Amino acid sequence: MAGEQKAKGKMEQAKGKAKETVGRAVGNESLEAKGRAEQAKGDARQAKEKTKDVFKH
Fold first, then answer.
1. How far is 12 from 57, CA to CA, in rounded Å?
2. How far, in whole angstroms, is CA 29 from its chain's centroid?
């Protein structure tokens, strides 16, 4: 289960980066902001899973 959540976090980070890049390229500030938010969500998921791993050992 933890591996699945880590993968989900990585996917959110990648999708967010793509949205941010496209938004910046076309001058769409809304899309750029959504991309940054999605990256932050992925970062948070990754951090949560890493914390869980630390306390498992």
1. 27
2. 18
Summarised one tens digit per residue, pLDDT across range 12-49 is: 999 999 999 999 999 999 999 999 999 999 999 999 98
**Which of 36, 14, 13 is closest to 23 using CA atoms?**
36
Task: Please give the model's pTM, rounded to 2 decimal places.
Answer: 0.81
Residue 41 to residues 2, 15, 25, 27, 57, Cα–Cα distance (Å): 16, 11, 22, 23, 25
DSSP letter string, 1-57 = -HHHHHHHHHHHHHHHHHHHHHHHHHT-HHHHHHHHHHHHHHHHHHHHHHHHHHHH-
